Amino acid sequence: MAVAMASCGSTLAVYTKLVAIEKQPIFKTAFFGPSFGSDPVKHMSSSAKQRLSYSLSTMIPKASATAIEDGSYQDTDVVPTPKVIIDQDSDPNATVVEITFGDRLGALLDTMNALKNLGLNVVKANVCLDSSGKHNTFSITNASTGRKVDDPELLEAIRLTIISNLLEYHPESSAQLAMGEAFGVEAPAQKLDVDIATHVHVYDDSPDRSLLVVETADRPGLLVDLVKIVTDINVAVESGEFDTEGLLAKAKFHVNYKGKALIKPLQQVVTNSLRYFLRRPTTEESSF
């Protein structure tokens, strides 16, 4: 069985409902570019308390029955860890999306068609085999601009579309994905609110920017949340990478404040704000 992608004309509309922010308009900040304004330390007290609320009652549209992609794999008892990587760093002109699920994925022609239905162009596709499995990589651009995707909502729609179809056409991935708890045939053995720790760190990257690293349990809308929280503190997100590795979401964002790296007090503001929103019983205490 191979992964298939929906004809996703309505994906963004459903995604908008999925990530409707409580008492706020839909977030439209671009993934790149400065975000200047009020003093971030003063802003933290109000921004950090505004926790975002999401409705999980609506499932992402599923692929049509005719969208099944060709592919084969060896049926084993060991289910590989699904991985979806959205990379904004490796190519200056395109967003790179990588999908891995052992050797169980086919050519993903319908995946490319689904990306086109989201208003994207697939400018390059590649398949690489190694000991971890088959890595399907797509370089995509926004069809309207010819540039890499810079809208967090569209990036998240890409991610959720891929994951929802993994759950539909590879039900064995359900126990390996956080969203399998609500939408899959088998919930993960680990409890997301108990067994998955949250880590937030900010590192000095260069005089002009810092590196924000977040690791937490995955859920719909997380990429949009992270970018919104950071930009609400008037910190700009330049570029980065967002990885979904089974139950975990791992974000690495290059950030700056007015073109400079974040000073230590501002690093603490960003860390505290994110951890307040992402807080769970196993949040790493040392990252406070």
Features:
single chain, 288 residues, alpha+beta, 8-stranded antiparallel sheet, 8 helices, 8 strands, 27% helix, globular, disordered N terminus
Brief overview:
By secondary structure, the chain is α+β, with helices and mostly antiparallel strands. It has 8 helices and 8 strands; from the N terminus they run ααββαββαααββαββα.
Task: Report what the structure shows.
By secondary structure, this protein is an alpha+beta fold. It contains 8 helices and 8 strands; from the N terminus they run H-H-E-E-H-E-E-H-H-H-E-E-H-E-E-H. The chain has helices at residues 11-18, 40-47, 109-117, 152-169, 180-183, 192-195, 222-232, 264-278, and strands at residues 83-87, 95-100, 120-130, 133-142, 199-206, 209-217, 236-245, 248-256. Strands 3-4-2-1-7-8-6-5 form an 8-stranded antiparallel β-sheet, with helices on one face. A hairpin with a 2-residue loop joins strand 5 (199-206) and strand 6. The radius of gyration is 19 Å and the shape is globular. It starts with 10 loop residues before the first helix and ends in a 10-residue tail after the last helix.
